[in-house]
Design a protein that fits this description.
Low-confidence stretches: none
CATH superfamily: Cytidine Deaminase, domain 2
Order of helices and strands: EEHEHEE
Structural class: alpha+beta
Length: 105
């Protein structure tokens, strides 16, 4: 997890979870505790796929949506979620997979 200030400058980077070759248990409480303690305005998430396949799994898509919704609730914006493979990476933001909220009138 990468905690960012309102100018998207690095506040802190922390490895919060360690998984197996097939699964990583992720709990929002741990991520948002760190973001709140660093007074973050935004954040990025990143994880690796040991297989080298950078395409997001169904679980990757669901956890990204969940963390984005929670970030909106907490007013801490999810800027991107990166999946790192052996020779490339996948960016949810670059692929247009992060929903943007439209301003209300």
């Amino acid at each position: 997890m990468i905690a960012l200030n309102s100018e998207l400058q690095l506040l802190e980077h922390v490895m919060l979870f360690r998984g197996t070759a097939e699964y990583c248990l992720v709990h929002p409480r741990d991520l948002f505790r760190t973001l709140i303690l660093t007074n973050a305005s935004a954040f990025m998430m990143a994880h690796n796929h040991p297989s080298g396949n950078i395409l997001p799994s169904h679980a990757d898509l669901k956890i990204t949506q969940r963390f984005q919704k929670l970030g909106q609730l907490m007013e801490i914006k999810l800027v991107d979620h990166l999946i790192v493979g052996s020779e490339s990476f996948f960016s949810f933001a670059d692929r247009g997979l992060l929903k943007t909220r439209k301003a209300r009138l």
